[in-house]
Amino acid sequence: MCSSVAAKLWFLTRRIREDYPQKEILRALKAKCCEEELDFRAVVMDEVVLTIEQGNLGLRINGELITAYPQVVVVRVPTPWVQSDSDITVLRHLEKMGCRLMNRPQAILNCVNKFWTFQELAGHGVPLPDTFSYGGHENFAKMIDEAEVLEFPMVVKNTRGHRGKAVFLARDKHHLADLSHLIRHEAPYLFQKYVKESHGRDVRVIVVGGRVVGTMLRCSTDGRMQSNCSLGGVGMMCSLSEQGKQLAIQVSNILGMDVCGIDLLMKDDGSFCVCEANANPFQEPKKQKQTNKKIPREKTFLLPPS
């Protein structure tokens, strides 16, 4: 069976889950496309078969031969578990076929590993906390002496951690040594200078198409360093200085992101430094309803006028 009508916008994900925010993104995109009379299709990666026949790239979905392709594909894959040999292969295939992906494969990879993000940002004048990391999976203990120049307490993060998990504030070398025996070493860790004045709080900046569409102050409620809402933190809409907005936009541009969440740490002098970048920004429903509505609606900006 062949498709005869091009869906102008696809939503591509690993699975359509009933839980928030996956279902909310899908609902909002459908509503936006209906409002603007755009063709829409939700596609699950497991349904896709990639083909190269007679030297040409092709695609089948659930046995259906696709002959007309979307102009824009909104990608939602969990970055901590992105696999180059599966997820990125599908994204590369679509991109090679002329589809415009939000976000592009390389942009997603730039956010998969926290140290990769900093590698991309280094050399561009972006304020970053001093950060060390290492190659291999078993070198954590060897880094204890190397990272001492960052001073204690220091931040220790799994480079593929998410939602504030696998993040520690190491008190001293003994604490680091204890951590080396307790943590899982499936991915390297990074060691980072502690920004004390931003303990338990940061600003999540949502950038879509090079514009700031929402800002949220996130605060810990239990004294811990992480302010993630998934760990019990609370968030509220907030204003942001022009300096903060321009920094978030600069980071988004360097990483090649169409849609992202940039987390900024706050300094006592009112300036900011970059904490992390997220390729799948979406706040929890009770925390940021207005921005949640904006993100999916803004995701059609790459489409030409109807």
What does this structure look like?
By secondary structure, the chain is an alpha+beta fold. It has 3 domains: 94 residues, Rossmann fold (3-Layer(aba) Sandwich), CATH 3.40.50.20; 119 residues, 2-Layer Sandwich (D-amino Acid Aminotransferase, Chain A, domain 1); 64 residues, 2-Layer Sandwich (Dna Ligase, domain 1), CATH 3.30.1490.20. 25% of the residues lie in helices and 27% in strands. The chain is built from 8 helices and 16 strands. The chain has a 5-stranded antiparallel beta sheet with strand order 14-13-12-15-16, sandwiched between helices. Strands 2-1-6-7 form a 4-stranded parallel beta sheet, sandwiched between helices. Strand 9 and strand 10 form a beta hairpin. Helix 3 packs across helix 4. The chain is globular and about 60 Å long. The N terminus is likely disordered.
The secondary structure category is: alpha+beta
End-to-end separation in angstroms reads 28 Å
Class of the largest domain in CATH?
Alpha Beta
**CATH H-level superfamily of the largest domain:** ATP-grasp fold, B domain
Cα radius of gyration in angstroms: 21 Å
* CATH architecture annotation name of the largest domain: 2-Layer Sandwich
Biggest pleated-sheet summary: 5 strands, antiparallel
Count all strands and give the number.
Answer: 16
Q: Give the helix level as a range of percent.
A: 25-40%
- The sequence of SSEs as H and E is EHEEEEEHEHHEHEEHEEEEHEEH
Question: Number of helical runs?
Answer: 8
> Could you give the order of strands across the largest sheet?
14-13-12-15-16
Point out poorly predicted stretches: 1-5, 285-289
Q: Could you say how many structural domains there are in total?
A: 3
Average pLDDT score = 86
- Approximate shape: globular
